[in-house]
């Protein structure tokens, strides 16, 4: 049988089957459609404006490495006029993050972008290794997620950037939709498909890979020969997310559009006004100044639990009460440095060029 020609250019030999559409295409057409779809996602959602300083949340893994590569490519191709930075969080996980950060340092050279690394240790006085030794491997990802979110904002503030982009892909978002349904978490279900989150007083955060399939990101990294780190965290991912992941992979095998279909379903959910009214208003943490829906932000509460040797309990509202019942926090309690926002800019991209 003669070699199949590319379904897009009808010229070169098709060497891959596109996971998202099943089309048999050549390598150059794959790069082009993948990058163009990300560009379309960016422009349709008006993610940037010319002159924005944008930090790419970089872990050294495939998603953020491909994101850094594609952001650099699109910024040059369409003249977005963005200043790009790499921002890495060092959770302090020996044998995992220390190795993946070496990859980010090489990416810094390869992509010629300034890099800022901020560690849990310098910010909270605790590494994940130390946290796991106190809380065990059950709730560790809760600590890690809360601490990382705040660390990224703090790193962005140090870099004086207005916007953080993360490598969350379509599979991650579809999994989150499924998890929020399974947990009945209405508040998160309402916002988990947003491409961009920005409260009045937060640094903008967005997901340019919202519609990019994980399999295509892996293919892109492979064919572009990108330098990335592929080992899983030694403290193993959230088991509940694992169930959603396996379920999603089964659905994808039966019908590849399932991933996008779930995202579209998530986007179509509307939260009833009376449910919205029960959601807490944003305020500022009275201890560290970070955005919070309670008097104390989650990171301060978790840190207090760790410092007072009650960390196992410190992840729920009930646990907060238990901490309070033990008496006020000691005067000399370790505190997270005061959070200050960088100067923020507003604006929107032009759909033709990607810039205003
Ligand atoms: Fe942190 Fe859990 Fe992810 Fe490991 S798997 S990096 S502990 S959130
Ligand atoms: Zn082609
Ligand atoms: Zn706080």
Would you kindly provide a written description of the structure presented here, covering whatever features stand out?
- The protein has helices at about 25-45, 60-75, 95-110, 120-125, 130-135, 140-160, 170-185, 185-190, 215-225, 240-255, 260-270, 275, 300-305, 315-325, and strands at about 15, 25, 55, 85-90, 115-120, 165, 195, 205, 285, 290.
- The protein is α/β, with parallel strands linked by helices and about 350 residues long.
- The protein has a 6-stranded mixed β-sheet, with helices on both faces. It has a two-stranded antiparallel sheet with strand order 1-2. A two-stranded antiparallel sheet has the order 9-10.
- Strand 1 and strand 2 (about 25) form a beta hairpin.
- Helix 7 crosses helix 10 (about 240-255) and helix 7 (about 170-185) packs across helix 11.
- The longest helix is centred in the middle third of the chain and has 20 residues, at about 140-160.
- About 40% of the residues are buried.
- Mean pLDDT is about 90; it is low at about 345-355.
Structural class call reads alpha/beta
> What small molecules does the structure contain?
iron/sulfur cluster, zinc ion
Query: Helix count, per DSSP?
Result: 14
Provide the succession of SSEs.
Answer: EEHEHEHEHHHEHHEEHHHHEEHH
| Percent strand | 5-15%
Query: How many β-strands, per DSSP?
Result: 10
**Mean of residue pLDDT values:** 89
The largest β sheet comes out as: 6 strands, mixed
- Largest beta sheet: strand ordering: 5-4-3-6-8-7
> What's the helical proportion of residues?
40-55%
Low-confidence segments: 345-356
Cα-atom Rg, whole angstroms? 21 Å
Give the CA-based shape.
globular
| Distance between the ends | 50 Å
């Amino acid at each position: 049988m003669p070699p199949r020609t590319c379904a897009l250019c009808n010229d070169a030999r098709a060497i891959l089957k596109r996971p998202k559409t099943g089309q048999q295409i050549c390598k150059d057409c794959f790069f082009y459609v993948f990058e163009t779809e990300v560009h379309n996602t960016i422009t349709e959602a008006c993610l940037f404006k010319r002159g924005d300083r944008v930090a790419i949340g970089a872990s050294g893994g495939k998603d953020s490495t491909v994101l850094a590569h594609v952001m650099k490519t699109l910024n040059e191709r369409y003249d977005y006029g963005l200043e790009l930075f790499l921002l890495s969080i060092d959770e302090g996980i020996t044998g995992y993050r220390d190795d993946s950060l070496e990859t980010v340092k090489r990416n810094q050279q390869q992509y010629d972008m300034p890099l800022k690394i901020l560690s849990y240790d310098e910010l909270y006085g605790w590494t994940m290794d130390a946290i796991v030794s106190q809380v065990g491997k059950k709730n560790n990802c809760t600590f890690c997620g809360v601490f990382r979110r705040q660390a990224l904002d703090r790193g962005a503030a140090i870099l004086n950037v207005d916007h953080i982009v993360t490598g969350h892909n379509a599979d991650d978002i579809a999994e989150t939709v499924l998890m929020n349904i399974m947990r009945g978490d209405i508040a998160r279900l309402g916002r988990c498909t947003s491409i961009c989150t920005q409260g009045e007083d937060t640094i903008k955060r967005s997901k340019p890979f919202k519609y990019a399939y994980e399999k295509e990101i892996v293919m892109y990294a492979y064919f572009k020969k990108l330098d990335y780190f592929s080992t899983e965290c030694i403290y193993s991912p959230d088991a509940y997310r694992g169930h959603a992941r396996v379920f999603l992979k089964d659905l994808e095998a039966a019908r590849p559009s399932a991933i996008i279909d779930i995202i579209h379903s998530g986007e179509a959910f509307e939260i009833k006004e009376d449910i919205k009214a029960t959601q807490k208003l944003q305020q500022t943490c009275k201890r560290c100044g970070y955005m919070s829906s309670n008097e104390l932000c989650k990171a301060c509460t978790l840190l207090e639990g760790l410092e007072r040797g009650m960390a196992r309990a410190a992840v729920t509202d009930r646990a907060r009460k238990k901490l309070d019942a033990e008496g006020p926090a000691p005067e000399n309690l370790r505190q997270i440095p005061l959070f200050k926002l960088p100067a923020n800019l507003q604006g929107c991209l032009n759909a033709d060029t990607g810039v205003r």
